[in-house]
Amino acid sequence: MKHLYFIRHGRQNSGLCNVDVPLSEEGHLQANLLGERLACGKADAIYSSDLIRAAETAADIDAWLHLGCCLDKRLREIDFGDMTGHSDAENRERFGFFLEKNEKMQWDLPYPGGECYSDVYRRGMPAIWQMLAGDEQHILIVTHGGFIRAMLMGMLGADFAKSRMFGKDMENCSITEVLYDEEKNLFYIERFNDYAHLEHNPQLLRKSWDKQER
CA angle 83-56-112, nearest 5°? Predict the structure, then answer.
């Protein structure tokens, strides 16, 4: 049985849509608290999205684990296309019709000029299979909320249109553990959005932040 630990990156320093920016001070603190927790468990390898916020999260974690980290662009966040780099208010004004339709979660719609969740699964799953083909048993994957949701839906054979039903607020630096049974070729969701390492620091949780900073 192999263990995949999907980790959402720490808090970034911008509230704009999917901009490639570093972590905030809070994001580094989240990542170090997670690294301290993971140092008490098992980890054989770290893989990360190459976007800055994920790569910095992985580096902070690896300061505790000393495994080295492999960056892979296939682990990037869903491509928000024309919405990238804009505020929530700007995107509501420009793409209100799309957002209203997307909220119904009846269709796996691509973001204007970008990707849909099944697109993310198709580009991301080959990277996951490559990891599973190696000898590592406990694999950390530092990535993004949309990517994690897409992987879970695809691994379960579920409707990609419902992807955002996995966690209304997925915490930054939370752990989602997936077990892979090699004999049965089946995935099991062992835990989702585990942020026990942050609970004694409520200022690090998303509910404590201004909506525009999320």
Answer: 10
